[in-house]
Task: inverse folding
């Protein structure tokens, strides 16, 4: 029987490095139901991502030992993660149109009247929870949009 009053668990929130090899592109052969190129998502954890997970698991084990744990079970995604809930990136923010999609105000470099205000501009979370940062960037983008509209620039 599980003694839930005597059970503790540690879940390690790690992160993934912002690699250009992890991307969303148009598939050269697969089509969607309208006959247009389908989206292709390519992702592979960097060895450093795996090392971070392993490091966290080992520290968790040490915490268990220090707390006098009797039975310990630990695991990490040593072959790469298969899921995640903080989905960020694909529309990298940056000053250079050659290497980024949106500018610092989440405005598309290529389409001036297009603002993409979501987690897409952040190619890594730096390990923090992303939503407050997404909201802060949204407020900044909205301020910029209002000012630009008043000047007749959008
Ligand atoms: C289980 C879970 C737990 C989480 N916990 C936390 C937490 O504790 N703290 C934290 O900071 N973050 C947390 N997150 C992450 C956070 O929810 C996301 O990072 C954030 O919501 C991303 O915002 P977004 O605007 O980029 O995308 P989303 O919030 O996913 O918004 C995308 C929107 O686009 C809409 N959409 C999709 N396709 C289309 C289409 N074709 N046409 C029109 N609309 C479309 C969707 O319906 C959705 O409303 C969690 C996420 C999950 C799944």
Result:
């Amino acid at each position: 029987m599980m003694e839930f009053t005597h059970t503790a668990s540690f879940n390690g929130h790690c992160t993934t490095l912002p690699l250009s090899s992890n991307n969303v592109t148009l598939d050269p052969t697969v089509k969607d139901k309208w006959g247009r190129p389908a989206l292709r998502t390519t992702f592979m954890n960097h060895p450093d991502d795996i090392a971070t997970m392993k490091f966290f698991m080992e520290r968790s084990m040490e915490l268990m030992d220090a707390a006098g744990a009797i039975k310990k079970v630990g695991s990490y995604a040593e072959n790469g993660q298969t899921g995640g809930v903080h989905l960020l990136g694909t529309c990298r923010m940056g000053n250079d149109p050659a290497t980024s999609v949106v500018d610092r105000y989440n405005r598309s470099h290529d389409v001036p009247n297009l603002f993409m205000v979501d987690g897409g501009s952040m190619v890594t979370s730096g390990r923090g929870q992303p939503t407050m940062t997404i909201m802060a960037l949204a407020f900044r983008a909205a301020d910029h949009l209002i000012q630009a509209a008043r000047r007749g620039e959008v």
